[in-house]
Amino acid sequence: MAGKTAIVTGAAGFIASHLVDRLISDGYTVTGIDDLSTGKLANLPPDFDLRQLDIRDPEVRKIVSEVRPDFVFHLAAQISVSVSAREPVMDAEVNVLGALNLFEGIRAVEGKTTKVVYVTSGGTAYGEPSVLPADESTPVRPLSPYGASKLAIETYLPVYERLCGLDYSIIRLANIYGPRQDPHGEAGVVAIFARSMLSGKSLTIFGDGNDERDYVYVGDVVDAIVKAAENSRPGPFNVGTGEGTSTNRIFEVVAENCGHTDDAVHGPPRPGDVNRIYLDATRAGKELGWTPKITLENGLKSTVDWFRQQVD
What is the mean pLDDT of residues 137-166? Predict the structure, then answer.
């Protein structure tokens, strides 16, 4: 894809910054949009073309007009489930109106077709499915305003396909972990465990720790996103391993890599947390040629090694 242009929204974030690295390596000319409310400049290459803007800012449309991108990778979002419950209007303003602001920018570009890759959450879309692993035919039942706002954009994309001819693919992610993940967020249990253990702090597991998530390494996720960009199929595509891993097991493996010997403290479960979710990624395998390559053990070791460098 050498010579192609791309815009990455949320570019300084955890997943998007890895995507930026991959696109540049593949020969893309990349422009990033990020307001740095949660993203970090340190995640991005030196001299990277970053436009520091809120995704809702009308200037976003001007950037799209200027760049005339071949691809837009939309990862900017309000990602906190708890914040969405407290402030659902703000959540919708960022996740729905922000996306529409971006799409209107694409709509105004004449004389070319732009491919949008929309990255969203599988776990929050499916809620508590009765059959696991959940495939893309699983009924969508978001349990939070965040899940609802992210799902809403999936319904807008075919509308914009008709309005302005954009192409799109939808990626529904499992639980992503790896280097650069924020250890201060609410969703990054691997990052939280690694940072706390390496800093010698005690840890609390909410509930009995037997809840299960589908953990997939960030490098594998970036590979799926790039494959979706290069493919004409819209999806949605689940991106996960198809296997559930308990929080207790994550604690054990991370502790082993950190040399952490203290037991976890168990606290009350958090209201609204999904008990079990893992995703069937068969469609991504068949239509995108994607399968995860990094084992959980190797991925957790790489992640701990990265956090150890940050602590040192």
Answer: 95
